[in-house]
Amino acid sequence: MGNWFIDIDLDKGWFPASITVIVAGLAASLLPLFARPHTQRERRVSQTGDTGGDQSIGDTQKSPASAVFRNFISRCRYPRIAAFTWQALFAAVFFSFGWTLTYLMSHVWVVFGVELGLLVIAKVAAAMGLFGFAAASLLAYRGKRKALSVVLMIFSLIYGVVGVNAVYGQYPTIRSVLGAEAFPEMPGYQPHGATRTVKEWEAAAKAGKLPKLRREGIVRTVDIPARIAHFKPRKANVYLPPAALADNPPRLPVLIALSGQPGSPDRFFLSGRFQDSLNEFAKKHHGIAPIVVSPDHLGDASHNTLCSDTPVYGDAQTYITRDVTGWITSRLPVQLPGKAWGIAGFSMGGTCATHLGPKYHNLYGHIISIGGEVHHSNGPVPEMVSRFYGGSRAAYEDHVPAVAIRKYGLPSQTILFGAGQYDQIGQDNARSVAQAASARGMKVDAVVVAGKGHDWNSVRAVMNYGLAQFCMETGLSQGTVHISSFPSLTHMDGVKISYGQEGHG
Fold it and tell me: How far, in Å, CA of 61 to CA of 68, rounded?
């Protein structure tokens, strides 16, 4: 299978546009304007044997439901208007059903643990409306147009799936759907004499003494073994900026990025396209940017490990904080853990960031949580206490972000919360955890992404802002970071902003 196929963009470009065009064309071809219903006289002719080929409404000899439906329309004085009325009615009923059901699942029952957002609800409702239109056409027409109605029913479902995926950005390519490795392996990489500081690198750049650099950084697939933890991780992904690939590279800051669940380590680069932001920063700063490592904290897409050491899925916490940390410091040109390190995550990964970040404040000076939860969620709390923590409520509480912040967080740490405009649950969660962070004296910022929900589009927007803050805090950039430079972002209401309100530096 060639790369041209599995690397087709599913959430933007010609593919979703083509689906929209096909659906629109099929729907237009089924309008009575182009498919004229039978009159009563034509119906009588068809009943005597002259069916009129592909002409449609009026056959009472076959399928009872569709025949009665066609017969009713053919008896109307204005059959075209009658047919269109029924198509519109079916579309409206199905649209309303799709909207109501999706809204209930999202905002009332909260089936998925998060609000789906109005964009997702609208996409599902639109697809159901098209399905209803096609169903009415299936009843109304015979021959070729009956077949086209079936095709439209199929494509209306495809339209809905593609539309929802475009909102979430979860599967950007067919490769990501198939779970195929998106990035080449990086076997045997070793830093080439990483002895310089970032300031020394910048001085060399001003003097014109830098080595020749790649135009962009690289994302690679790596195996980070669990040598200490009892855990079976999948392969991780690493971003190395151009400076890290040069001889005698500078020691760079590190950002740990954790996907949501279900998810995989490549999501920050496939769905979040974080490498684009990193490469853009590197172009403006002599090839330097943070090294980003996205390890596996799940073991399997279906596992919610709670980022904890448990008898259910193994020692995910120890793996992230010890095995991954040890591998990074021994294999990559990085600064020591602490102020120059950060941990970020989306959804369940954001929950991990807000409990691991404060608990291991010696490792992470910066925390970014996008759409995180107030506590890990893998069943009811009593069930989690029993199943994952051996019946110890105290052990469970130790992994609750607000509790971890109150017990372990340091005022020197910065924490950024982010959520989409339509992710009300994510915003509420952020406000709750941010209250604990403010009480602890941590530097707090919280932003809302306009027009987005609990999706990877929100992740991209928040991470762009978070990257600017992280780079400024770790000395990779100078000056200030203003939220006004990020048009899609506004500060979150109800959060005491102690960092980033007017810009900083």
Answer: 9
